[in-house]
Design goal:
45% of the residues lie in helices and 18% in strands. By secondary structure, it is of the alpha/beta class. The two termini are 29 Å apart.
């Protein structure tokens, strides 16, 4: 499976320069406010996480810029809990007039469908995909005392340690589990999964040497990679991550399997039945906000890859294409709906 047409490598300075150039090329505020908007009152963006987290902060930064396009304030409504289902249900039950949208993750908008036997709504049927704002790749890391310096050496090493190694991820059904399951199967390594309740305890055990292999977000791993305590070997997704631009993608390193090529995202969706012209306004506002200097800087700092050229049509096609892939990967990893 191919996501994107080619590998793209940007460092932070290049991306910020591109954003600054785009900003200089267009009179952002005056032109943005001149757009015809569906918004007749403040627009609500529901976030399935508590205030202060990376997704919340990104939403608030983007919301300030999107407000310039809408001509109305963008209000962030935090509704954490129940794996994102509370926030999703609030949006599903709202009117499809564009005044309420969800800014969530792949799990809250897609994979929850496969992780739970009963959910209050079907995200694929009851949400309208509007636009992605960034890709959310994860990185494979090993402890500093591990002999593998790159992915090829890692695969050779785990092959010689069949049945002896464990790896950590931030939960059952997580992308980290799916990716490491694939690596273990390709190498015939028979590695054992240790599922943690979140990234913080997983990282703590990596630093303490209780596990030597893990996969997680760059936001949680970057400081320890920089300090030399952990070594990053590869990242998921179609292109390198600006925050860790020297680390190749799995596909670049010779492993293009679905679990390694696919990537999570942060995206915006509305309730079912949203008019096409309103959906396009949301996409235009989000692209505008991501391409702003502040939007791009915040997304890069969080370890994500900015997306400032998405459309409702492109996102809908990707959503439909990726949903069965995630379902297959979860099933292959033996993850049972709870």
């Amino acid at each position: 499976m191919t996501h994107g047409t080619h590998q793209t490598r940007y460092n932070r300075r290049q991306l910020l320069a591109l954003a600054a150039g785009a900003a200089a090329a267009s009179p952002l505020t005056a032109l943005a406010q001149a757009q015809t908007s569906f918004a007749t009152r403040p627009v609500r963006v529901v976030v399935p996480f508590a205030a202060g987290g990376a997704t919340d902060v990104i939403t608030r930064v983007l919301g300030e810029r999107m407000a310039q396009r809408f001509g109305q304030a963008v209000v962030v409504d935090n509704k954490p809990g129940a794996a994102g289902l509370i926030a999703g249900e609030a949006v599903v039950k709202s009117a499809p007039d564009g005044m309420t949208a969800l800014l969530g993750t792949t799990s809250t908008m897609l994979t929850n469908k496969y992780l739970y036997k009963k959910t209050p709504y079907d995200p694929l049927a009851e949400l309208t995909p509007l636009v992605r704002v960034c890709l959310a790749p994860i990185a494979l890391v090993v402890t500093a005392d591990t002999p593998a310096q790159n992915l090829q050496e890692f695969m050779a090493w785990i092959r010689t340690q069949k049945g002896k190694l464990t790896y950590g991820s931030y939960g059952i059904g997580s992308h980290g589990q799916l990716a490491c399951t694939t690596l273990s199967e390709v190498a015939g390594a028979d590695m054992t999964h240790v599922a943690y309740k979140g990234e913080a305890p997983m990282v703590q055990d990596l630093l303490g040497g209780q596990v030597k292999i893990g996969m997680g977000s760059l936001l949680s791993l970057k400081a320890h990679i920089d300090s030399g305590k952990l070594r990053a070997l590869a990242v998921t997704g179609p292109r390198r991550v600006p925050l860790l631009s020297e680390v190749p993608t799995f596909a670049e390193a010779g492993y293009p399997q679905d679990a390694l090529s696919i990537v999570g995202w942060l995206a915006i969706a509305g309730p079912r039945g949203m008019p096409a012209d309103v959906a396009r306004q949301w996409a235009a506002a989000a692209n505008y906000a991501v391409a702003s200097r502040e939007g791009m800087a915040r997304i890069i700092a969080a370890g994500f890859v900015p997306v400032d050229d998405d459309t409702p049509e492109k996102f809908a096609r990707l959503w439909a294409q990726e949903a069965p892939i995630w379902g297959r990967l979860l099933q292959a990893a033996g993850v049972q709906p709870s």
